[in-house]
Amino acid sequence: MEGGFESIAGSKRSLHVQVAREIARKILSGQLPQNSIIPNELELCEQFGVSRTALREAVKLLTSKGLLKSRPKVGTKVVERAYWNFLDSQLIEWMDGISDNDEFCSQFLGLRNAIEPEACALAARNATVEQRMKLSKIFEQMCDIAKADVFDQAK
Fold this sequence. Notes:
Layout: H1 15-29, H2 41-48, H3 52-64, E1 68-71, E2 75-78, H4 89-94, H5 101-126, H6 129-154
Helix pairs in contact: 1-3, 2-3
């Protein structure tokens, strides 16, 4: 594998989350290609400077997000992109600064545009009078912010 990983000793975050983030960013950027086998446990422990427990927790975390799949006698494999959990907030955070982020954000906003109006209508239908008043105030604030954004962009 090109470049390998750097030791994360001394990090303030929990070790397994930091290890998971580093592996995820290599997967998301394509440095660890889909369907490839990642380095074995001992190599990764040495590269990151962490225990096997921390590494195993990181792999479990990435497996839960759909990025990795472990198989006995085969190793840990990068899963195809179609199975990644792009609705996971941590995964979205880890994508920050990766090249194809703009396309993902555009698709994600398209999904939100399709779902949120119906969700808002459902909330309004089932809301109490007080909740409807609060929704109206929030909607007015959103409109004001949108108008200010349009005004700022026109400058």
